[in-house]
From TrEMBL:
Upper lineage: Eukaryota, Viridiplantae, Streptophyta, Embryophyta, Tracheophyta
Protein name: Small ribosomal subunit protein uS4c
Main location: plastid
Gene it is expressed from: rps4
A single MF term (Gene Ontology): structural constituent of ribosome
Domain RNA-binding S4 positions: 86-150
Function summary: With S5 and S12 plays an important role in translational accuracy.
Coiled-coil residues: none
Localization: Plastid, Chloroplast
Length: 203
């Protein structure tokens, strides 16, 4: 399954706020806010969709991350969120250098972003503590970033990141703590949704 490219507002009405996909919020009285009876499968499926759409992943990519997290010694859900949050496209979004994750992915694909002074054009690149994220020293690149930074509030910056606005630089201080994840999500339900597939892959 490919990345979602359809109407974004339709998805947030169904699933709730997806800040990585769009800055819009579900309106009062939307389909998301009306209580209805859902099966356990439906509830897990919607949490999975919320995670996939927020981070802009294909179904195959998300399943791959779940399988990697399942092999870790720590809690699978916690590791899964850390893996997704440490992607380069998400780090740019969280630093305020892009207004959405799709926009951040485009910046990376078009080679506007450097990690530790080297251009990285892979949005899924996994950032590590002490990685320095910078913008290519070209006015076009800086102008694209500035538009997003102008509307970014400092209080939105999670504790594991440091932003130097004037220099167009960001620093990854440490692995993110789960309480600073930028999405309201029950990651356990996502792990449960994929449990049969991950068990099969680990045999």
């Amino acid at each position: 399954m490919s990345r979602y490219r359809g109407p974004r507002f339709k998805k947030i009405r169904r699933l709730g706020a997806l800040p990585g996909l769009t800055r819009k919020s579900p309106i009062a009285g939307s389909a998301f806010s009306r209580p209805d009876r859902k099966s356990q499968y439906c509830i897990r499926f919607q949490e999975k969709q919320k995670l996939r759409l927020h981070y802009g992943l294909t179904e195959r990519q998300l399943l791959k991350y779940v399988r990697i997290a399942a092999k870790a010694k720590e809690r699978t859900g916690k590791v899964l969120l850390q893996l997704l949050e440490m992607r380069l496209d998400n780090i740019l979004f969280r630093l305020g250098m892009a207004s959405t994750i799709p926009q951040a992915r485009q910046l990376v694909n078009h080679r506007h972003i450097l990690v530790n002074s080297r251009i990285v054009d892979i949005p899924s690149y996994r950032c590590k503590p002490r990685d320095l994220i910078t913008v290519k020293d070209e006015q076009k690149s800086k102008d694209m970033i500035q538009n997003s930074l102008d509307s970014f509030r400092q209080e939105q910056l999670p504790k594991h990141l440091t932003l130097h606005r004037i220099q167009y630089k960001g620093l990854v201080n440490e692995i993110i703590d789960s309480k600073w994840v930028g999405l309201e999500i029950n990651e356990l339900l996502v792990v449960e949704y994929y449990s049969r597939q991950t068990k099969t892959s680990l045999k």
